[in-house]
Amino acid sequence: MPELGTLSGGAGAAGVAGLLRLRRTVAAPAVASPLPSARCRAAGVVFPDGGQLVWGRQLRPALLLPAGLVPWQDARRQTLRPPAATAASPGEAKPAGLLEKYPAVVTGFFFFTWYFLNVIFNILNKKIYNYFPYPYFVSVVHLFVGVIYCLLSWTVGLPKRAPINSTLLKLLFPVALCHALGHVTSNVSFAAVAVSFAHTIKALEPFFNAAATQFILGQQVPLPLWLSLAPVVIGVSMASLTELSFNWIGFINAMISNISFTYRSIYSKKAMTDMDSTNVYAYISIIALIVCIPPAVIIEGPQLLQYGFKDAIAKVGLTKFVSDLFFVGLFYHLYNQVATNTLERVAPLTHAVGNVLKRVFVIGFSIIIFGNRITTQTGIGTVIAIAGVAIYSYIKAKIEEEKRQAKSA
Q1: What residue ranges do the domains of the chain occupy?
Q2: 341 Cβ partners below 8 Å, 6+ apart?
């Protein structure tokens, strides 16, 4: 039988040994059967060690040997079939799953989860500051819980940890430093003023981004973008003049936060790596945590040890105090992670609208939950500022889309 050939020597033995090492894919017991040596020699098939072939579910004997060489084939006419996953022809299209059938629903769910986590974080964060006004320590807790979450995720391989070296650390350190400074100053602002007012001030972030792009990066910002920022500045100014919770600590720290996050964006563009966003954010969180610990110990450490922890525990109890800190850190990390995953799924214009709507949700829910009294002028100023951010985001997204189309053309 020349078409079968002769399995002898090193190559043949290696091939049979490889077949012997194949593992079954189902729980059915393997069937072992020695091949009659006379019939093998007659067919020209030689097994050097006179071994047995083990037939599992993955192996189809009819494909490996002639029909007459399978001793049980007459008694068992049904050939063992491969698993269903391999039964389909290579060109046959797989049926679309739920994620492929309804992408808009899935994206909407991502947005809802992002907003929900963000609102819960802001509300819980402010409630903690009402009985534990130590924003530096709380900022460390936010990052610490997030780092523990990342380490556990890496341990189970969801996601798999990306390797890092000194070169990547040098690229990520400025990003993490700006992230740490922006995070701490945001929390100082949230502790000092109403959440709604802090987010109104942070609506100025596009103005700082445009200024940095124009005067630091040297990239020309179109006139329509500058004009769209006018209502943002006017609205924030109107809201600040009559905000009942206004104080300079909250205002100045919110402004520093805007500047810090602007520089974070600049350094992020310089630190583009092949690493996925989940791993990048994990490494940034670890570095930011290390950066935030010394200021927290120096600035708030003595007060915390003397009466800070005791006062908080006396007001709400140890269990609630610890659980509040844990959950606020968890919600902080999750909302940032979900925000990243959400924004990776959508176009720049949807991204811009989503960011604006997120701020509207947070401001609205914080006013409802905490019952903050705002003046008519503050309300009008807030609406004008948010509308200005929406216009700016829309124009910026359209310009970026036109640039991409021009490059691809």
Answers
A1: 9-81, 126-400
A2: 110, 277, 278
